Amino acid sequence: MARVGVLLLNLGGPERIEDVGPFLYNLFSDPEIIRLPTPALQKPLAWLISTLRSGKSKEAYRSIGGGSPLRRITEQQARELQSRLRQQGVDATSYVAMRYWHPFTESAVGDIKADGVEEVVVLPLYPHFSISTSGSSFRELQRLRQADPAFRRLPIRCIRSWYDHPGYINAMAGLIAREIGNCEAPDSAHIFFSAHGVPKSYVEEAGDPYQKEIEACAALVMERLEQLLGHPNPSTLAYQSRVGPVEWLKPYTEDALRELGEQGVQELVVVPISFVSEHIETLEEIDIEYREIATEAGISHFRRVPALDTDATFIQGLADLVHEAMAGPEVNLDMAAQLPKKVKLYPQDKWAWGWNNSSEVWNGRLAMVGFSAFLLELLTGHGPLHALGLL
Ligand SMILES: C=CC1=C(C)c2cc3[nH]c(cc4nc(cc5[nH]c(cc1n2)c(C)c5CCC(=O)O)C(CCC(=O)O)=C4C)c(C)c3C=C
Ligand SMILES: [Fe+2]
Ligand SMILES: [Fe+2]
């Protein structure tokens, strides 16, 4: 029997307050999170944004006990999945690969090689594919594989997304049904799916399938829930956690909550749909910020369905996914990261006159150069603006 390494991908989170700044710097250094036309500006901008954001982020992490529980929960999921697979006769060892904090992807790959694993199943702990999450981790793994012949030789089977897998859908519907059971009026409780957002351009310009997968997933969960409860409930899907000035997927969670309040909704059951573990966005953003907004909007009963964490049906669902991947063909990282349509992922370089893609790119580049020069002058205290007496 082959020794199988099950590589679980996740985002990672700061474990202590001092980690918040460096964690944010790693996150914003990733071109899959902020896409700049000029790669040389990625690191300076990551430094600037992480410095500006870290106060707000630190406050949020302080309010949930000083750090993210993501590593602890992901490692627990990994242990439970490993023992489930071993009980089912698979010689499996699970590994956790975080994208922006410890244990980093590189160290998980080092452990896989040291343990003499013979084949790898890559399982993102994101049910829905997004360029910014699974896509980014697949690319990171691709870079490591290209640089390392020993890793490249290992057969690899990647699971791209699993938003419609019965194990996951059943587990989600089961948790929601339990929460509905605690409601004052179970038949009319409003189910509110709050998914993590992404910038709208990811979907409309880069062809990110994330929104489609979220919508299909919410519909499947509602279908299964109706079977479990024996009645339909009203539902809403909205997107949370917007960062920065650009437009993200809509409706935004805060706006949808206010609208439901205006419509007279009294009892809300919030479902964190794109997350499979508790973390800052569930514990702080939903439980504290959105609860406050909902209460102000007149929603008197605000309940939140817990994240799946180590729910037994969910862990069995993950084990099924691994079995199915092992029985199927090799799926390499390129295949897993592929987008359905190639739109303007990296903007064109060729110059063309007029108000078009190319002029937008050059406007962007010139603005970035100007902005960096301004930043440099602010930091050093020397430059043309000082010479002119403007700074
Ligand atoms: C499906 C899940 C996620 C998507 C999609 C996603 C996209 C995305 N996120 C940011 C910016 C930030 N994300 C942060 C933390 C964070 N995000 C996710 C999940 C998704 N992100 C997780 C699991 C975590 C870690 C949470 C923890 O407990 O530590 C943060 C840091 C926290 C904060 O300051 O709010 C930022 C910033 C962008 C820009 C983006 C899409 C482009
Ligand atoms: Fe995020
Ligand atoms: Fe957030």
Automatic annotation (TrEMBL):
Transmembrane residue ranges: none
Major place of residence: cytoplasm
Catalytic reaction annotation: Fe-coproporphyrin III + 2 H(+) = coproporphyrin III + Fe(2+); heme b + 2 H(+) = protoporphyrin IX + Fe(2+)
KW Plastid (keyword) present: no
Enzyme class: lyase
InterPro entries assigned: Ferrochelatase, Ferrochelatase_AS, Ferrochelatase_C, Ferrochelatase_N
Keywords from the named record: Cytoplasm, Heme biosynthesis, Iron, Lyase, Metal-binding, Porphyrin biosynthesis
Keyword Cell cycle: no
Function: Catalyzes the ferrous insertion into protoporphyrin IX.
Family label: Belongs to the ferrochelatase family.
Protein's recorded name: Ferrochelatase
Organism (species): Cyanobium gracile UHCC 0139
Gene: hemH
